[in-house]
Amino acid sequence: MLKLQLLLIGLLAVPSAFAQDLPPILQGLGLREAPVASRDLPGWSKPEKVVIRNLFGSDVVSPLQRFAPGVTLVSADTQEQAVNEVVDADVYIGTCEEEVLAAAGQLHWLQTYFAGVESCVSQPALKGGQVVLSNGQRLSSTAIGDHSIALMMALVRGLDGYIGLQAKGDWQRDAVPQVQRFGEVSGRTILVVGLGGIGTQVAKRAHALGMTVLATRGSRREGPDYIEYVGLAHEAIELAAKADVVVNAAPLTPATRGMFNKAFFEAMQSHAYFVSVGRGESTVTDDLVAAIKSGQIAGAGLDVTDPEPLPADHELWQTPRVIISPHMAAMSPVTFQRIFTLIGENLRRYVAGEPLLSVVNVERGY
Prior knowledge:
Blueprint: H1 2-12, E1 49-53, H2 61-65, E2 72-76, H3 79-85, E3 91-94, H4 98-103, E4 109-112, H5 118-121, H6 124-127, E5 132-134, H7 141-156, H8 159-166, H9 178-182, E6 189-193, H10 197-208, E7 212-217, E8 229-232, H11 236-240, E9 245-248, H12 262-267, E10 273-276, H13 285-293, E11 299-302, H14 315-318, E12 322-324, H15 333-352
Parallel strand pairs: 1-2, 1-3, 3-4, 4-5, 6-7, 6-9, 7-8, 9-10, 10-11, 11-12
Helix pairs in contact: 7-10
C-alpha cells in the first residue's frame, strides 16, 4: 500500500492554487505538491530527530530550527558524523551517500539538496518504498536555462574560435565559417529533450529569441503554448532531424543513459549544434567526438561530460567547436537561496504533517 501511495505522489502531483502561498522565491517555478499529506503516509509521526548534512561550511541548524519547533536538529559536517547520527534519525537532509543511507535505521523522509537523484533511487534503502524522497527539482532551472542559451549563442556566433584568436592577438574575421552558414537564431528550430523544469526554461528563452521550439518528455505530451510540438521520449531521434539546435535537459534514467549516441548524431543536421546540461552519462562521449570531427554535427556546448571531472588529457578538451564548462550551470546565489527556502518549507510541512513539495517517483527515477 505504501509503495502505491508513493507512486501516486510521483504520478499525480500537479501544480495547483497552493503555489500562491509558497515563499515568493519559490513561486513561478512549477513546483509540485504531493496529493497525500505526510500525516496520512504509513509510518509518519512528528519527527524527533533530523540530521542535516552540512556541505556549506556555515550554520545550517539555527536558520532551520524555527521550522521544526520541539524537534532536535543535528548538523553533520562529515560523512562519518552523518553515518553516526542518522542511525536514530527520522529525517535526513543532504545527499544520497550510500554509507549514510545504509546506516539509517528508522528513516522516513529523505530531502536532497539538488535535482539529480540517480544516485538515490538505486539505493536499497529507497527501493523498498518505506522512505519518502524529495529533491531540489526546478530550483536551478532558470540559471541552467540561461547557461544553455549562452552556450548555444556562443557556438552560433563562433565565440569559441574568436576567443582563442584573441589570446594570440590574431584578427581573422572569417576564422569560424560556420557563423555564416548558421546565420541568426531567429527562425531556427530548437529541440529540447526533457521538458522538465530546465527544459521548460530553455524552451521559454528560445521562443523569446524567435525560435520554433520542439520538445520531448517521458510521460505526457502537454506543454506550454509557446512550444509547437511536444513528443514522447521515443520521438527524440526523429525530431532531431528537424532541429538546428538540440538541447539535452533530460534526467539520467536507464532509458536516457547513452541515448545521445552515433545513431542520434547521424540523425542531426550537419550545421546543427548539440548542447548538454542534463547528465553526462546520457551522451556517448566517443560518438560525440567522432560526430564533430567528421562534420556530422557542427559543434557542442557541454556543461556535463562523461567522465566527470573530465581528465586533463581527454580528447574532448582539444576537439574543435566544443565549449566545456565544469558542471556549474546551476551556480547562482538565487539557486542556493531557493534550496534553503525549499528545505525550510518542506521541513515545516513535514513536521506539521502537510503534503511535501517535489516528491520523487522512485520507480520512474525523477
